[in-house]
# Entry
Amino acid sequence: MSTVAPERRSAFSPFRHRIFFVIWLGMLVSMMGTWSQTVGAQWLFVNDPRAATIVPLVQTASTLPMMLLALPAGVLADAFDRRRMLIAVQVYVIVIAILLAVLTFMGMMPPALLLAFTFLTGAGGAMASPTWQALITELVPRDEIAGATRLDQVQVNVSRAAGPALAGLAIAAWGVPVVFAINAVATSLFVVALIVAARRWKPAVVTERVRERFLPAIGTGFRYVRHEPAIRTILIRFAIFMAFACTIWALLPLVASHHLDQGASGYGLLFGSIGVGAVLGAFGSGTLRKKLNSGGVLVVSGLAFAGALAGVALTHSVWVAIPLLVICGFGWTATVTTVVADLQVILPGWVRARVLAIYLMVFLGTQALASPVWGQVVARWGIKTALLVAAAGLVLSVVVVVLWKAQSPEDVDRTPQAYWGTTSFDEPDPMAGPVVVSVECFVEEENLAGWLEAMQEMRRSRMRSGATRWALYQVGESPGVYVEQFEVATWAEHAKQHDGRLTAEDQAIEQRAFSFITGPTRTNHLIGMPMVVPERRGSER
# Structure
């Protein structure tokens, strides 16, 4: 895969890679259909007496599947052919969209059934999103990942602008069922784009010798996040932002119909205004990154979002609200794009899909949990109060970013490094285990404090690459002799540490720790054995 010289690189440089462009274009059409369906589902019951409850629940039903299914989808995306996964998931979404359109045409779509179909559609998105996010790094060079991520957000937000506008026009002219039919057609076009791309597309070579088991692979993803401070900080800060930012999506139908007195076409215009701002945010975040670091972009976009959201709460003019919603869209996408780009660069390839799935769980799971809460705030205190409280919460999220700094992606080197080499004995069965790796060394008294500090980083390195337990021991009979032990579930898991889970950063951590050691180290692999109890012979009578 060729790269583009820095002086020639533009915001659209990733489009030079034809497969990326074809899939990007197909996803744009598909997402337009998805957003049209979301608008139709929310508008179907906007005049219902229970609208304050039903409308936010549509947002929950569409995003809750991500919380439940994104991580299993990430495991599958790390283990199987991602091309086939995308095609299979989209065929499933087509079937759901057709059923939804037909039943709505027939007048057989009560709120409960609508929420069920929305959930099923969201399940398709939950299976597809981690797969696509992980594929970006296969389709463009590393130095264009940030640009490809911004274009991905452009695709999301162009569809978010065009889809609702299309839905508003379609609802005003023909009604909600036509919008659901549009989604089925758009998803079908995406499948065609995937099939065309798959004919020219060679999947990445899987280097691991044994495919990971499903449930342990999920645990490995969570352990990586738990023991990687940079990822953990990014996700927690993002969750705080999302809890307040999601109000604009959850409450927009109510803002349009009850706060600004707009009909379906006006709602589509307001929804599209956010999308226009989101597109500007996708491109604008790249410009901001030339002048600010990641934290600076998050602060600027968060404050802009907060101010604009407060402005929407205080105005009853649709023409004042439109530019304010453009700013909201800018703040939303600038934040999301910055977070995703940082994760793409920081994450090593072997766990990328799983951690991006956890990110998606945070992204949409927070919306799923928070949206009904905002609906209840509206029901009790009104739309204006809900939007003002959310604006104050966004200011709080900016304070958190300022006080709780994350490691810069530029300071992290996650290039795979197989520096452990091969073992000096015949390898056991891949499923043998648990395996305890024991490293014995001698540390002089004057080096002990520095070594212990370095071993804290070593612990994080071992745990995020697959260890389930780590401990440090002093040998009582031999002063100055210490033993590091870490445990992995099976020999297959330990083999993956040898085969490419370790990175240049892990190697630097290990070199620093070993710099305090005097003399050679001694490494042993302790492999668990089943206890076989001999059968007892029956006593003779």
Notes: The longest strand covers residues 517-527. Residues 435-527 form a domain with the Alpha-Beta Plaits fold (CATH 3.30.70.100). Residues 1-8, 205-210 have pLDDT under 50 and may be disordered.
